Amino acid sequence: MTVGILVFPGTNCEFDVAEAYAEIGVATRLIGHGEPDLGELEAVVLPGGFAYGDYLRPGAIARFAPVMRSLVAFAEAGGPVLGICNGFQVLTEAHLLPGALQKNAGLSFICATAPVEVVGTRNVLTREFAPGDRFDLPINHFEGNFTADGETLKRLEGEGRIVLRYTDNPNGSALDIAGIANERGNVVGLMPHPERAGMGYGLTVPARMLLESLVA
User: Fold this and answer.
1) What is the dihedral of CA 115, 131, 145, 15, to 10 degrees?
2) Between the CA of residue 23 and those of 71, 83, 130, 202, what are the distances in Å?
3) Which residue of 116, 133, 188, 206 is most buried, as measured by CB atoms within 10 A?
4) Which phi and psi angles does 28 have, rounded to 5°?
């Protein structure tokens, strides 16, 4: 079993993800932004960082990278895809997920631990949890404030596609959203960093469950 980790110029969390998966015994392979083919993979992670320097807006340039054509095909075929932080931003820009991520309320960069609650479980990330489960995850972002039009927000909530919700909203996200899924549940975007939960001291149990669920 191998998890592909996409790397764009400015990505800086690829080794965090690789080390987290190594801890749970899953092999990973770094895949550069210019690669035309993902190859044989069981899942793909788009890690955090600043793809292409976020010079236009986070994820806006990365969506046009050659590797994204293969990622879209992988996702459309039902392959599990997780976008973490900047990866979440890339997934919205590539229209694999709805909505957008804007600057945090208060216009401040946040590096903290955030309490979250599981909402929907019909997706590749939280299927091992029960609605209402609560735990803490690290956050590290400036543009993590999820926004969407009213109809999209209503649909996300009504279809159970809100994956995680902040219990103490740190960034102003609509409906306290910390993560969402696509209609099929195989593509998930998440602002918190499960790969950093307990990093260097052993993954926390919820973080391990999240990362294992993606490849279950």
Assistant:
1) 70
2) 25, 20, 24, 8
3) 188
4) -130, 160
- Write out the two tokens for 71: 């990622």
Closest-CA residue to 34 (of 4, 58, 69, 72)? 69
User: Position 152: which residue type?
Assistant: T
In terms of DSSP bridges, do strands 27-32 and 2-7 run parallel, antiparallel, or are they unpaired?
Answer: parallel
Predicted TM-score (pTM) of this structure? 0.96
* Helix residue ranges, H only, 34-172: 66-76, 86-93, 150-158
The total number of residues shown for the chain amounts to 216
Distance CA 84, CA 141 (A): 11
The 10s digit of each residue's pLDDT in 148-178 is: 999 999 999 999 999 999 999 999 999 999 9
Tokens read off for 195? 């790969």
In whole angstroms, what is the distance from residue 152 CA to residue 160 CA? 12
Show the low-confidence residues of the chain (pLDDT under 70).
Answer: none
Largest CA distance in the chain: 43
Fold category of 2-215 in CATH: Rossmann fold (3.40.50)
